[in-house]
Amino acid sequence: MGEMPMSKIHEILQFTNHVIQGRWFSLFASFLIMAGAGATYLFGTYSKEIKSSLGYDQTTLNLLGFFKDLGANVGVFSGLLAEITPTWFVLLVGASMNFIGYFMIWLSIAGKIPKPNVWLMSMYICIGANSQNFANTGALVTSVRNFPQSRGNMIGLLKGFTGLSGAILTQLYLALYGNDATSLVLLIAWLPAAISLIFVYTIREMRVVNQPNQLKVFNYCLAIAIVLALFLMVMTLVERAVSFTHAAYVATATVACALLFTPLLVFVREELLSVFRKENPPRVPGVVVVVEKEDTNNLKCLSFNDIFLNKPERGEDYSILQALFSTDMLILFVATFCGLGTSLTAVDNLGQIGESLGYPTTTIKSFVSLLSIWNFFGRIFSGFVSEALLVKYKFPRTLMMTLVLLLSCIGLLLIAFPFNGSVYVASVIIGFSFGAQLPLLFSIISELFGLKYYSTLFNCGQLASPLGSYILNVKVTGPLYDREALKDLARRGLTRSSVKELTCIGNQCYRQAFIILASVAFFGALASLVLVARTRKFYKGDIYKKFREQAEATEAEMASTNNK
């Protein structure tokens, strides 16, 4: 066979460069980063290891859960950093924090270092969890700006992969380390950091252009993601029923990784089609596709009237202070406090809920995995379905938020009043409603307050979540659980000093706490309904009109440049 002509090699290299520099490859890199950014959802898997190895009671463990939620949801620093530094720096900082935080936790529970104080463990888990905000800011915000007319689909996919990451990381750690929860912490220390380092220069903001196949490409990605989720769900259930060999775990993890990389084939195909259509020819010198950071002088102080009185119309670019001091953001804060606060509390206590109701360890792990997978379906559903309903029927996302919060009330009540198998159903409902809230929150913020300061605003929007988690988890659920556990010890004639680990067994352990949580979630639904009324007129309009016009202007400019 003859050698390949140099011209052919040059074309292949040129096309490869075109793919790597394009929006689709940047999106693929974002998928991978987000698929590794959900380590916080595995807390229910390794929290028992922390509790037993360090001798904590449930209140102390819930305190660690609060600092995890605090780190995971206080992303203002990452947002502000993204306003003044390039995306690669944001991802690099996040990778460093991820490794440092979780590696120190692994050293602690593996006995590699002396037992740390509770405040030190709280700091470790807060740092590790906070790293996911840098992945969110770097990957999610950039992708939304690159595909502004499909933001619901985009956020649903990206947060969906984050929701799946718990199940993906579980399969990987079983393949690499076996059934060892301590090694799971080691995996989530190095793997997400490594992914961010590999793609640190790939993810960047680019000029927006219209592509006719864009929705079809997202639907392909949706199909692939659903297949991946179903595969993980089936394998999770099978692994609980059948004893797997190490080779079987390796095979399962390999298939999961292959499905995770399948969107790359779709994106390469789309880039080929775009070249053939001559709608997006390979980039040549002089065609600017990367968006530079705006002048940081835009982060200027505003007068009292500008902040509180002379605000832009909904959908226009609000300043950070204008958005934070708006009535709409206040209502979102209340709804997030109630919705995500109750959901995070349920997620963090799921392992102990299963234990209190007498489920075996393997079944409890199934609850955690089911919650992670249905968390994914909630994110995908709220992203794609809310986008379709919005575009076709002008159905407001705020109303979708109300319905999701009402659904979460049902899941919380199933734990308050358990029956045989009810925790399976509760895991699905809570996972679905928890997952659905985040894409809706992020989409609503981008639609009401614009994209100019979205890096900061979407991180500010979830600040209520750790506050809700602290009050509802540390101050309500933990003490109520410990009180029931002490009653159980007293009935057996024992005291707290008689046992290393404070454990409660029975339906009463979480009943009172979850009745309170269900009531709080219902109040959040009512608050969300107020926002529905306030934004009804806005959602009846064409909220994507200006982005279509910007894309058309960019296409005309790029066509003019390429013709010179």
UniProtKB/TrEMBL annotation:
<keyword id="KW-0812">Transmembrane</keyword>
<feature type="domain" description="Nodulin-like">
    <location>
        <begin position="23"/>
        <end position="266"/>
    </location>
</feature>
<feature type="transmembrane region" description="Helical">
    <location>
        <begin position="513"/>
        <end position="533"/>
    </location>
</feature>
<feature type="transmembrane region" description="Helical">
    <location>
        <begin position="329"/>
        <end position="347"/>
    </location>
</feature>
<feature type="transmembrane region" description="Helical">
    <location>
        <begin position="398"/>
        <end position="417"/>
    </location>
</feature>
<dbReference type="InterPro" id="IPR010658">
    <property type="entry name" value="Nodulin-like"/>
</dbReference>
<feature type="transmembrane region" description="Helical">
    <location>
        <begin position="121"/>
        <end position="144"/>
    </location>
</feature>
<feature type="transmembrane region" description="Helical">
    <location>
        <begin position="63"/>
        <end position="82"/>
    </location>
</feature>
<feature type="transmembrane region" description="Helical">
    <location>
        <begin position="247"/>
        <end position="268"/>
    </location>
</feature>
<feature type="transmembrane region" description="Helical">
    <location>
        <begin position="89"/>
        <end position="109"/>
    </location>
</feature>
<feature type="transmembrane region" description="Helical">
    <location>
        <begin position="156"/>
        <end position="178"/>
    </location>
</feature>
<keyword id="KW-0472">Membrane</keyword>
<dbReference type="InterPro" id="IPR056555">
    <property type="entry name" value="NFD4_C"/>
</dbReference>
<dbReference type="InterPro" id="IPR036259">
    <property type="entry name" value="MFS_trans_sf"/>
</dbReference>
<feature type="domain" description="NFD4 C-terminal">
    <location>
        <begin position="328"/>
        <end position="539"/>
    </location>
</feature>
<protein>
    <submittedName>
        <fullName>Protein NUCLEAR FUSION DEFECTIVE 4</fullName>
    </submittedName>
</protein>
<dbReference type="Pfam" id="PF06813">
    <property type="entry name" value="Nodulin-like"/>
</dbReference>
<feature type="transmembrane region" description="Helical">
    <location>
        <begin position="423"/>
        <end position="442"/>
    </location>
</feature>
<feature type="transmembrane region" description="Helical">
    <location>
        <begin position="24"/>
        <end position="43"/>
    </location>
</feature>
<feature type="transmembrane region" description="Helical">
    <location>
        <begin position="367"/>
        <end position="391"/>
    </location>
</feature>
<feature type="transmembrane region" description="Helical">
    <location>
        <begin position="215"/>
        <end position="235"/>
    </location>
</feature>
<feature type="transmembrane region" description="Helical">
    <location>
        <begin position="184"/>
        <end position="203"/>
    </location>
</feature>
<keyword id="KW-1133">Transmembrane helix</keyword>
<dbReference type="Pfam" id="PF23262">
    <property type="entry name" value="NFD4_C"/>
</dbReference>
<comment type="similarity">
    <text>Belongs to the major facilitator superfamily. Phosphate:H(+) symporter (TC 2.A.1.9) family.</text>
</comment>
